[in-house]
Amino acid sequence: MIKPWVKSTLIVAALVLTGCIIRIERPVERVESESQDKTGPLPMMDTGGLDDYGRHKLFASRYIEEGDYQSALEELSKAGKLSQGDPELYELLALAYDGDRQSAPAYENFLLAGEMYLQAGGLESAWRMLGWLRSFKQYTGDPRAGEFEAYLRAHQETGRSSGIK
Fold first, then answer.
1. Phi and psi for 154 in degrees, rounded to 5?
2. How far apart are CA 77 and CA 62, in angstroms?
3. What is the DSSP secondary structure assignment for residue 106, as one 8-state letter?
4. What are the extents of the domains in the chain?
5. Is the full-model pTM beyond 0.85?
6. Which among 125, 116, 119 is positioned nearest to 163, based on CA atoms?
7. Is residue 96 a contact partner of residue 115, using CB atoms and an 8 Å limit?
8. Which of 6, 78, 108, 109 holds its CA 20 to 30 A away from the CA of 95?
């Protein structure tokens, strides 16, 4: 039996990673984001009974898909006030900043998300963050990124967790 918060996280992750629309099999509530108007990209959206944090992440991922990066950043700011320990939040922040052509905060958030994914044992997600990091000029010569990559490679080779500070 999948717990509701796990299902909510999987729904958000699937939307972000695949860009696909997910059909939810049970009746869902319809909620409007506080930051949207009726003419925006999210006039009404199925939220699947998500809590406020999950709704803000879901709305942000949709705004990112629509190319409305400022609205995504507003939603993520609200989500950040509700939770700080979720690497998906920082990945979404990085994607929104990158889309808004703000490379410094995008880079920092990709690095933070990668470190958090690695600490949580999410190797695939950590490698994905490394791929994004390598696309930035800051990557070359950044000792923190080099350390992250070294920890990631060591973790993959040994199967043990290495702490990143």
1. -65, -40
2. 15
3. H
4. 1-83, 85-165
5. no
6. 119
7. no
8. 6
